[in-house]
Amino acid sequence: MVDISILMGSESDRAIANRVTSVLENSNYSFEVEVISAHRDPEKLEEYIKESDSKVFVAIAGLSAALPGVIASKTKKPVIGVPVNAKLGGLDALLSIAQMPPGVPVASVGIDNGANAAHMAIRILDLCKVSQ
Amino acid sequence: MVDISILMGSESDRAIANRVTSVLENSNYSFEVEVISAHRDPEKLEEYIKESDSKVFVAIAGLSAALPGVIASKTKKPVIGVPVNAKLGGLDALLSIAQMPPGVPVASVGIDNGANAAHMAIRILDLCKVSQ
Amino acid sequence: MVDISILMGSESDRAIANRVTSVLENSNYSFEVEVISAHRDPEKLEEYIKESDSKVFVAIAGLSAALPGVIASKTKKPVIGVPVNAKLGGLDALLSIAQMPPGVPVASVGIDNGANAAHMAIRILDLCKVSQ
Amino acid sequence: MVDISILMGSESDRAIANRVTSVLENSNYSFEVEVISAHRDPEKLEEYIKESDSKVFVAIAGLSAALPGVIASKTKKPVIGVPVNAKLGGLDALLSIAQMPPGVPVASVGIDNGANAAHMAIRILDLCKVSQ
Amino acid sequence: MVDISILMGSESDRAIANRVTSVLENSNYSFEVEVISAHRDPEKLEEYIKESDSKVFVAIAGLSAALPGVIASKTKKPVIGVPVNAKLGGLDALLSIAQMPPGVPVASVGIDNGANAAHMAIRILDLCKVSQ
Amino acid sequence: MVDISILMGSESDRAIANRVTSVLENSNYSFEVEVISAHRDPEKLEEYIKESDSKVFVAIAGLSAALPGVIASKTKKPVIGVPVNAKLGGLDALLSIAQMPPGVPVASVGIDNGANAAHMAIRILDLCKVSQ
Amino acid sequence: MVDISILMGSESDRAIANRVTSVLENSNYSFEVEVISAHRDPEKLEEYIKESDSKVFVAIAGLSAALPGVIASKTKKPVIGVPVNAKLGGLDALLSIAQMPPGVPVASVGIDNGANAAHMAIRILDLCKVSQ
Amino acid sequence: MVDISILMGSESDRAIANRVTSVLENSNYSFEVEVISAHRDPEKLEEYIKESDSKVFVAIAGLSAALPGVIASKTKKPVIGVPVNAKLGGLDALLSIAQMPPGVPVASVGIDNGANAAHMAIRILDLCKVSQ
């Protein structure tokens, strides 16, 4: 079991994933990193989410960045989205991640800002420790 | 069995769906209209797609408009997306629909342009009739 | 003591705050709502944050929406930002809230989407209950 | 006779055209590639469309990307448009291609996304085979 | 024979056309107004351009505003384009009109600014009178 | 006396000016090129415009591209503006040049598109020759 | 003699000018308000600037908002620009006002934010009083 | 005591700060340069502002550029903001700096335009000298 699942939509998002793990390596939380596309591997993604006992999901995606939203529609855990600049400076991904319909929340951080996804995950997990 | 499935992400997209059906009513093709959110009803959506024998899907959605992309990831039929202006003039939905990753194509028409989704579906189905 | 502090930058953001509380009223979590501008009342804001024992902050702001970021710089709790459409369709507020520098994370939801701020807060607090 | 006509507005769009053909080469469909500008060679374009018996048109263009729309106005076959990033990240071309007036549909794929134009063409042609 | 041909892509652009004629009525130049869509009536448009002996064309269009560019590709006379705000504040039309490929110039005025199209036409025609 | 005055706001716009002159060198029209900033050299600019007997002005500028508009406010000759990409992909310059107030027209061509400024100038001057 | 000159490009900017004067009426500084278009009345504007002994200029303008920049090019006093939302949410005016070339500074406040122009003028004048 | 305090949000903004100092070195005004993040060092920033007797503040920041606004909320001196292009061409920083709420003014100059921040500071300080 890990605390945080870090999923990216494509191998090309690896550099941003590394910014997430760089921060998490200095924390007390465990994590794992997977490459699963919401659009190209929907069954694999669904299976992963169902079987995972992670507490927080970080989803990294560019373009029509569906990954965070799809995860948020299949789990009740907090999902943090990282928009990646693949085209248009990342504005497409930011809007795809932030503009979710009411009822299916995704917590968007800034474009390419993997570090803040890690920091947000840490804040959430720290809160739960304190709450105990 | 129907020729065209028209799905919208939310009841608030009904006006745009009506623009699709207004055009299709003057065609020779049959259609059905359903409200299923990709984000709030993923299982219902998946089931619908699996059981449907429609030839073409028209998906209408605003904001982070995931519906067309999710359908395209679960069928090999042509999927036409209609971005709806809910916020930002519909730019968010246009980008979410058009900027799909390679391998999972969605055919985007213009913002709120349900008519052109119908016309595109008719062109595709006409082509198949001619091809026979 | 309350679970969730909902702060808005201006009385004109009240309608969006109501969308947050509408959702929270159907949850098991307590909350309080305050109007404090990050730019016009920095001392009051600082004092509020220091004295608050809320677990999660929801900050609602338009224009150069500094409120969520200022809160995130003064607490280690999770901060959820709601960009409000005051000008430019809310794009200014979305960018101000999402594009935080590394180390000071804010979880942005969509423009005017107070409901999702509530849902995100609930997911975080539910996680902490489960974690116990 | 070919199944798919791939037209680009300018020789500078060749790299995007290659993304279309790379995908089609692994399909069972035949294609041909031509460089014809809608704005600089309108007569040649018109003649090409009239004489072509292609089933699907893929039109690649940047800037004020008129090529897909002009083709769609002169044929009843499905037309797929690929916006090219020449300026402004390709936003100009995406809007020029997607925002067609009702009655003259173009199926826009993402910016520079020649691969998805090919995949969309394949879906359409596969549908027609199945329909027979 | 008239000095200026004013073409609009759709009857819905009439209000902007009236701004052009309001200015021209106070000038010494003659004009005529026609509704011809570049996308829906390409043959009629071509015929009109060929038979016209107008000195200057003013083309008014919204969305993927192809009309000015198509005219410019079929005449060597000066073409002035007026982008109309139909969606996205008219940004789509402005980009479609201004971002023409080298060799096929269109003179874009501001969004909905029919008055300036008239003033530009007057400047051109005044220059020719002076040049004689 | 020259037919066309080509003014640029800054020496850094020289590459775009060269695109104008490259086209004009293959025409029958004479031209001269000057570097005068509307903002830093307003008196020199005014003097130049007053003393010039050019028939057409081409004004090249980036950022808050005031040069074309200032020229248009001080002459009754046709003024063609070329927006330069210095920041924001040139969107700032395009808007500054195109969005002129009614009564002071500027003919905007595309971003960095010096060639089309030349072609537009040629069309205007050709018209005047024919009109004689 | 007045402390602050408030100029607007068009009578239609009056509502924004009133936001400036509403704030200034509660200050100790005198002001006067004039309507002078930089594009339509350049001579009147130049004369006004030369004869004025105001300490600070506030310039209000929409669209291609040249007024603040033209004033800044003709005086060495501080110039504050207020972009007005006439089209595109005021983004055109904001960019025209803020993106000035190096050497000719304009202090831009927010879109339609006449109040902040007044507050900025007061800060500058207060500083000068204190400095004495 | 110095005349002008130049603060930047991050060491990565140094190049833009140098553009400010390059201009100021040729003026008669003294200045100092500090790196203090509004988001990561709020206490240090507050202390700096309280202890400073600078007459004018220049604040340089990218992304969600809170620095100028936070300073403006804690001093009554004039604050000049310089948006830095870190993402999205600097549009995010420009909007964060310019779109301040009424009552807390920031004078925004153009993206990366450190020179104009210096020139604006000089104009303000020159005015105060003249006013004495």
UniProtKB/TrEMBL annotation, chains A, B, C, D, E, F, G, H:
Binding sites annotated in the UniProt record for substrate: S10, D13, R40
Keywords, ordered alphabetically: Isomerase, Lyase, Purine biosynthesis
Function per UniProt: Catalyzes the conversion of N5-carboxyaminoimidazole ribonucleotide (N5-CAIR) to 4-carboxy-5-aminoimidazole ribonucleotide (CAIR).
Documented EC number(s): 5.4.99.18
Entry annotated with the keyword Iron: no
Record-stated family: Belongs to the AIR carboxylase family. Class I subfamily.
Name assigned to this protein: N5-carboxyaminoimidazole ribonucleotide mutase
Ranges for domain PurE: 2-131
The organism's place on the tree of life at top rank: Archaea
Organism of provenance: Methanosalsum zhilinae (strain DSM 4017 / NBRC 107636 / OCM 62 / WeN5)
Enzyme class: isomerase
Involved pathway(s): Purine metabolism; IMP biosynthesis via de novo pathway; 5-amino-1-(5-phospho-D-ribosyl)imidazole-4-carboxylate from 5-amino-1-(5-phospho-D-ribosyl)imidazole (N5-CAIR route): step 2/2
SUPFAM superfamilies tied to this protein: N5-CAIR mutase (phosphoribosylaminoimidazole carboxylase, PurE) (SSF52255)
A Pfam family: AIRC
